[in-house]
């Protein structure tokens, strides 16, 4: 690892999100979120698991801050639960909810850990879903900015980095087109409205955050994935270009260039949302950084991909037509993670390079990267997760190489600090650096966590 050198000031962190760890789903005046509702629908989540208790950090986050300190993290990315702060999504503020985040920020700063605050990690207040259709309603964008202001008024004097949205593609696509995530809709018109209104909400919230704390750095986290054609055929290559527009460029282009990607946009004409004259300028206000969430690459085939974009409801499996690449890999590490996702570190380089060359080389944080594996606590009281350790090491090396090549990489966050509620997979998938025994809430730092801590301690700045 001697050639793994990071830029001065590079931050090493870990990430979580509110619904996946907090528990306290109805504590101290919190309102329900769309996820609180969705998990109660039969058959939606593995074994009917819920986030009611999760890793139970709402009652007491201090042990986990102590763990972060022990790991030597520079930064912690967490999300604020909108319905904990505004139980109805708007109007009356739940002070107890805000107090929780206020105390958490203070505890992090006291431990020398920089807070990176995500404002929307999918747990929309159910009241807004019921009243205005959630982000399918245009008003949701303005209400999101109002919520951002409430949070910033309390935390803005201490929080330096804000992430408005987490993975708006996932919220729109899995939540409103494929029905796999909350709120469980399958409607192409709602889907594209949710894309546009999230972006608008981002732009409005970013302006509000900047007005309130001029030193704040504001960005958002996108799930980006290089898309490869399954074969060299023209049809597969065309499908890959379109799939790239529907995942990566659907967000990067409006944010960085002020327009939706042309080929996709023309194909989606029947479903397009109303776009008002100033919207694109609001969306494209300069970002202080881009957050990249990277796990794997995708390979697509025309037969699976293209029909979705032209017809409805025929082609539901957007990007599920992924093809597993054939051939021999490095057998010392499993080629697929426990999610069945290909381990492909080069894809991260490709994305970072693309941000540099096609999107003006913005400051970049890798705001999520990591892998699920079927971890077990062994008789020696340890979790020997060598595959995860290797995954992290390989991806960190890629980030260092990208920075050396001129990418403006500023930091890296492992997903996740803790094992947690992995959405529709419930507690079946473990991503943590720290093992959580959900029956007792006991924590055990995994071997990957110990390794990461050592890695941070030995970091080298160029
Ligand atoms: C991302 C999500 C995060 C987690 C990881 C595995 O899509 O942002 O909450 O589920 O994937």
Describe the protein's architecture and organization.
- There is one protein chain.
- By secondary structure, the chain is of the alpha/beta class.
- The protein has a single domain (11-461), classed as Glycosidases (TIM Barrel).
- It contains 16 helices and twelve strands.
- It has an eight-stranded parallel barrel with strand order 1-2-3-4-5-7-9-10, surrounded by five helices. The protein has a two-stranded parallel ribbon with strand order 6-8.
- Strand 9 (364-368), helix 15 and strand 10 form a beta-alpha-beta unit.
- Helix 7 runs parallel beside helix 9 (188-212), helix 8 (168-176) runs antiparallel to helix 9 (188-212) and helix 14 (346-358) runs parallel beside helix 15 (386-404).
- 52% of the residues are buried.
- The model is unreliable at 310-321 and 327-331 (pLDDT under 50).
- Bound molecules: beta-D-fucopyranose.
- Beta-D-fucopyranose is lined by residues 17, 20, 166-167, 170, 223, 293, 368, 415, 422-423, 431.
- Beta-D-fucopyranose binds at residues 17, 20, 166-167, 170, 223, 293, 368, 415, 422-423, 431.
């Amino acid at each position: 690892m001697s050639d793994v050198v990071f830029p001065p000031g590079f931050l090493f962190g870990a990430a979580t999100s509110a619904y996946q760890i907090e528990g306290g789903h109805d504590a101290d005046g919190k309102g329900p979120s769309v996820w609180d509702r969705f998990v109660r629908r039969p058959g939606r989540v593995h074994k009917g698991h819920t986030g009611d208790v999760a890793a139970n950090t709402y009652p007491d986050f201090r042990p986990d801050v102590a763990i972060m300190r022990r790991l030597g993290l520079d930064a912690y990315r967490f999300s604020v639960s909108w319905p904990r702060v505004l139980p109805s999504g708007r109007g009356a503020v739940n002070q107890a909810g805000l107090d929780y985040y206020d105390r958490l920020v203070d505890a992090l700063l006291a431990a020398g850990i920089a807070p990176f605050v995500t404002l929307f990690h999918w747990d929309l207040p159910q009241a807004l879903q019921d009243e205005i259709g959630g982000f399918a309603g245009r008003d949701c964008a303005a209400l999101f900015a109002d919520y951002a202001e409430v949070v910033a008024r309390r935390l803005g004097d201490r929080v330096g980095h804000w992430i408005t949205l987490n993975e708006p593609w996932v919220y729109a696509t899995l939540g409103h087109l494929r029905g796999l995530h909350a709120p469980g809709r399958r409607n192409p018109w709602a889907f594209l409205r949710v894309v546009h209104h999230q972006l608008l909400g981002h732009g409005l919230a970013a302006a509000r955050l900047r007005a309130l704390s001029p030193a704040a750095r504001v960005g958002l986290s996108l799930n980006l994935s290089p898309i490869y054609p399954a074969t060299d055929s023209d049809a597969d290559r065309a499908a890959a270009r379109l799939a790239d527009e529907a995942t990566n460029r659907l967000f990067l282009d409006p944010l960085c260039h002020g327009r939706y990607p042309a080929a996709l946009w023309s194909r989606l004409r029947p479903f397009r949302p109303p776009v008002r004259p100033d919207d694109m300028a609001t969306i494209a206000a300069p970002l202080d950084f881009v957050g990249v969430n990277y796990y794997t690459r995708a390979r697509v085939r025309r037969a699976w991909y293209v029909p979705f974009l032209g017809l409805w409801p025929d082609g539901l499996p957007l990007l599920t037509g992924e093809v597993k690449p054939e051939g021999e890999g490095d057998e010392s590490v499993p080629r697929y993670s426990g999610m069945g996702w290909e381990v492909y570190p080069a894809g991260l380089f490709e994305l970072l390079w693309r941000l540099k060359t096609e999107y003006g080389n913005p400051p970049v944080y890798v705001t999520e990267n990591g892998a699920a594996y079927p971890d077990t606590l062994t008789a020696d009281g340890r979790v020997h997760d060598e595959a995860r350790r290797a995954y992290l090491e390989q991806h960190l090396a890629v980030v260092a190489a990208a920075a050396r090549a001129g990418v403006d990489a500023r930091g890296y966050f492992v997903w996740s600090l803790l094992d947690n509620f992995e959405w529709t997979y419930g507690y079946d998938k473990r991503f943590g650096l720290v093992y959580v025994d959900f029956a007792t809430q006991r924590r055990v730092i995994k071997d990957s966590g110990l390794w990461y801590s050592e890695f941070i301690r030995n970091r080298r700045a160029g």
